[in-house]
């Protein structure tokens, strides 16, 4: 493990305390790689709990250019569940903010432009930041119908200096979807968001929810991209520090359990007529349990037992001559693959919708990635659905596979065979 690829933190990313205690260690894990250049790079995954502010965070900070580059493997527009989620976020925003022609909406980590495409007003100015060139090119193609004057897409990580070079006005809406937990310095990010946000603007964060991660045994949520693991308690502390407040919080099942926060500048009136946080004290009280190191010890014990059961099942079925394919070449799936040391002796192939991934291989496993069409021709006995949180979508899409006797293996929250 060459440390040129990562660094270990010495202080909490939120409060800068040195009181950090290791609570989970998965060990060296392969990076997701679709370029073929990083197949053998392994970086540890160790989680630290800050004794001061209670933020759970990754000890290692991986060089971001290894994670977000022109070979980035995820496109939000290719996933029905995520597309519906992004559509709903924009719908909620438009019910809160009356967007006028010329107003700016900014999506940080805009990916393939799916969220920006859902705004109804064709004459607002759509801004997007993303460091991954391949998905940004898709966004440019998707959004070009709005005209070059109404689109500004930047291949870079978000910073207010870059934003204000391209804009003379502040943004009415700023969205950070499935990326806030990727930040090595959330304080700098939130400060920049504050400076770029209109006085009556809305800042929306959608991210994984720590309580759901623990409840669902979602050890796969621990990946090199995810540097921080938020509860509402730990998020609120960062927002308070930068004169921002949450005026609505919505819990959902996105990516196995998430929460959506609608945020404004303190003393702003935006959202007063629309939203009201209910049971805020109850939310904070419920979250107290995950400040204890014992919660994480139990989490590791449960997940290890569950995944070992999965490995035994895969080995047993393979010995019977059954053909097992992974369904979904996901970033989070790499954690399970590394944890169980899966390779092509147990897994015949990985199936994915994204043509960009076809012909490539899962890092350090020699497992090829093929199309859904090819997989259906090869007729595996099992699909191991590593993106288990898309269960309903997968079952609907693979009705014919199930009809002919094929079965899904869902690894989490508990190993499940469907149909049983």
Describe the protein.
It is a single chain. The chain is α/β, with parallel strands linked by helices and 420 residues long. The chain has a domain at 320-418: Rossmann fold, CATH 3.40.50.720. It has helices at residues 64-67, 80-96, 114-117, 133-143, 160-166, 186-196, 210-215, 232-241, 280-286, 293-319, 333-340, 372-378, 391-397, 399-403, and strands at residues 6-8, 20-30, 42-50, 56-58, 60-62, 104-108, 125-129, 151-154, 171-177, 197-208, 228-229, 244-252, 258-265, 324-327, 349-351, 361-362, 367-370, 382-385, 407-410, 416-418. The longest helix has 27 residues, at 293-319. Helix 4 links the parallel strand 7 (125-129) and strand 8. The strands form 4 sheets. A 7-stranded mixed beta sheet has the order 8-7-6-9-10-13-12, sandwiched between helices.
State the main characteristics.
420 residues; alpha/beta; Rossmann fold; seven-stranded mixed β-sheet; 14 helices; 31% helix; 25% strand; globular
């Amino acid at each position: 493990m060459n440390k040129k690829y990562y660094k270990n933190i010495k202080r909490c990313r939120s409060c800068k305390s040195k009181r950090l205690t290791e609570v989970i260690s998965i060990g060296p894990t392969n990076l997701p790689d679709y370029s073929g250049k990083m197949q053998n790079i392994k970086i540890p995954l160790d989680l630290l709990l800050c004794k001061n502010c209670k933020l759970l965070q990754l000890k290692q900070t991986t060089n971001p250019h290894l994670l977000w580059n022109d070979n980035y493997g995820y496109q939000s527009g290719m996933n029905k569940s995520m597309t519906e989620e992004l559509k709903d976020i924009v719908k909620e925003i438009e019910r809160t903010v009356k967007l006028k022609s010329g107003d700016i909406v900014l999506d940080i980590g805009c990916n393939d432009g799916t969220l920006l495409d859902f705004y109804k007003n064709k004459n607002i100015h759509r801004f997007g930041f993303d460091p991954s060139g391949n998905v940004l090119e898709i966004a440019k193609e998707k959004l070009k119908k709005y005209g070059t004057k109404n689109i500004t897409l930047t291949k870079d990580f978000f910073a207010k200096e870059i934003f204000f070079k391209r804009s003379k006005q502040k943004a009415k809406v700023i969205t950070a979807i499935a990326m806030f937990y990727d930040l090595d310095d959330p304080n700098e990010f939130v400060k920049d968001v504050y400076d770029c946000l209109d006085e009556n603007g809305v800042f929306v964060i959608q991210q994984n929810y720590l309580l759901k991660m623990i409840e669902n045994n979602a050890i796969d949520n621990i990946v090199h991209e995810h540097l921080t693991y938020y509860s509402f308690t730990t998020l609120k502390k960062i927002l308070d520090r930068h004169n921002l407040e949450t005026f609505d919080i919505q819990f959902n099942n996105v990516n196995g359990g998430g929460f959506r926060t609608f945020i404004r500048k303190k003393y702003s009136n935006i959202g007063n007529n629309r939203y009201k946080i209910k049971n805020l004290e109850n939310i904070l009280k419920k979250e107290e349990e995950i400040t204890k190191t014992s919660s994480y010890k139990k989490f590791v014990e449960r997940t290890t037992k569950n995944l070992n059961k999965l490995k035994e099942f895969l080995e047993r079925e393979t010995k019977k001559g059954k053909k097992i394919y992974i369904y979904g070449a996901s970033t989070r799936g790499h954690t399970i693959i590394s944890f169980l040391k899966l390779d092509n002796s147990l897994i015949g192939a990985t199936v994915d919708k994204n043509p960009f991934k076809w012909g490539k291989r899962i890092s350090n496993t020699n497992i090829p990635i093929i199309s859904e069409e090819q997989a259906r021709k090869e007729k595996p006995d099992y699909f191991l659905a590593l993106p288990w949180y898309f269960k309903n979508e997968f079952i609907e899409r693979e009705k014919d596979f199930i009809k002919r006797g094929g079965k899904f293996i869902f690894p989490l929250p508990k190993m499940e065979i469907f149909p049983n």
